[in-house]
Write a structure and sequence with these properties.
Elements: H1 2-82, H2 91-98, E1 105-109, E2 114-118, H3 127-143, E3 147-151, E4 164-169, H4 173-240, H5 246-266, E5 274-277, H6 278-291, E6 297-302, E7 309-312, H7 314-332, E8 336-345, E9 348-355, H8 383-394, E10 398-405, E11 409-417
Parallel strand pairs: 6-8
Antiparallel strand pairs: 1-2, 1-4, 3-4, 5-7, 8-9, 9-11, 10-11
Helix pairs in contact: 1-2, 1-4, 4-5, 6-7, 7-8
Length: 419
């Protein structure tokens, strides 16, 4: 019979371990899927951006060559008009010259005098300032290599040094817009990726919040009945054995269970923060942890001489410090020193929990607060996640890993607004 009971107990234990392994496996698979989706979105954005840049590069290059040929034709029309006499039909020439309504162009004599210009956006309206601005634009176009030279005499050789005119031109507005289009598209793609990732993470966080709130409410509800029964039994024991020294300790544990149930019931609902003495809250937590841990763990509390007050929900904030202390005990392997320090800094109240444990790698400083993350063989990995939720969402504060060194220890820092 005892063997059968032992076998059944081992079977239940193995089943529990198997369920725990399955839960952690599902959690890891979920994080892997999220990581894969984010990676896929980034790859798609890079492919779209690179493809757009390549296509736009070729389009801009072809349009630039086309505009260069158009300006050569326009320059030839200008030369023909300059050499025309009373027998020359200039109708086609004028049509070519007047047909340029997009490409900025400046015609300048060899002497530097401006012959004409068109399609320019000038800051100066008229007079010497406008001519000075046109000459500056012509110099810029020349430095960019956008120049076509025409000789005034058809019989003049290019190397003769006779009079000539130079036609300077710039990219049209359409070409400039097309050149900047890939960067606009790249920005739109990046915004899309950021919004998609944000929406993905928000939906995941909302789903987790629903699970946590439901689990917390159900836990508080389930604990309510046995706690009420235990409180009644403690009262009966007090009346039956008024001199028993163990009954007050039992009563403390029942009160503790009642406080835990109260904490779970507050998850998901707006707490009612009140002005609290920080020293009272911290000493209560340190006293509770000290009584229920090994003598090999030394826990001390360093508080300032001046009283510190903060606006907080004491039952929930005690839970934060307890989680930090319990994690510190696990990190030290049940042997070491924990120091809880409180002090004032500017307009903040700061609490630091330092341990002499195994430390946390720097790349895990933010990951440790993720739901389901744990380095222990058993556990849900929700302690620090709930602590972060309580501090940041309920108390509008901050909690983070201030410092950690492998083999030396870790310091967690909590910041609250000063009351």
């Amino acid at each position: 019979m005892w063997q059968t009971a032992g076998y059944a107990g081992n079977k239940m234990k193995n089943r529990s371990l198997f369920q725990e392994m399955c839960r952690k496996k599902r959690s890891m698979q979920w994080y892997d899927r999220i990581r894969q989706v984010k990676f896929l979105l980034v790859v798609m954005a890079v492919v779209i951006a690179v493809g757009s840049l390549i296509v736009s590069h070729y389009l801009v290059r072809d349009l630039a060559l086309g505009e260069r040929r158009n300006m050569e034709v326009w320059a030839e029309a200008m030369r023909t008009l300059n050499n025309a006499d009373e027998n020359t039909d200039v109708a086609l020439v004028l049509k070519v010259l007047n047909g340029n309504n997009t490409i900025p162009v400046i015609v300048q004599y060899k002497s530097g005098e401006i012959h004409s210009y068109r399609n320019l956006l000038l800051k100066a309206r008229c007079g010497a300032d406008s001519i000075r601005e046109v000459k500056q634009l012509a110099a810029d176009m020349r430095r960019g290599g956008r120049v076509v030279r025409i000789y005034l005499n058809e019989k003049t050789r290019p190397d003769s040094g006779d009079d000539y005119m130079e036609i300077y031109y710039d990219d049209s507005i359409m070409l400039k817009r097309l050149s900047s289009y890939p960067y606009v598209q790249l920005g739109v793609v990046l915004i899309f990726v950021v919004v998609a990732i944000f929406a993905l993470l928000s939906s995941k966080k909302a789903e987790q919040n629903k699970v946590w709130v439901g689990l917390s409410k159900e836990t508080a509800h389930q604990l309510g009945t046995p706690i009420s029964s235990l409180m009644a039994w403690v009262e009966i024991l007090k009346e039956t054995y008024p001199q028993d020294e163990l009954i007050p300790e039992m009563n403390k544990d029942v009160k503790r269970l009642e406080r835990i149930a109260e904490r779970f019931s507050k998850i998901g609902s707006l707490p009612e923060p009140r002005k609290e003495q920080l020293s009272t809250v911290l000493e209560h937590v340190v006293d509770y942890i000290s009584r229920r841990t090994s003598d090999k763990v030394a826990i001390s509390c360093k508080l300032p001489e001046q009283p510190l007050t903060a606006c907080m929900c004491a039952p929930l904030f005690e839970w934060v410090i307890e989680n930090l202390c319990k994690n510190a005990i696990d990190a030290m392997g049940g042997q070491g020193r924990i120091t809880v320090t409180a002090f004032e800094e500017a307009e903040k109240v700061v609490i630091e929990v330092a341990d002499t444990g195994k430390g946390i790698p720097k790349n895990y400083f933010k990951t440790v607060f993720s739901p389901g993350f744990t380095t222990k063989k058993r556990g849900w990995g929700l302690g620090l996640s709930l602590a972060k939720r309580i501090v940041e969402e309920y108390h509008k504060g901050r909690i983070f890993v201030k410092h950690s060194e492998i083999g030396v220890g870790t310091i967690f820092r909590v910041e609250l607004k000063k009351y």
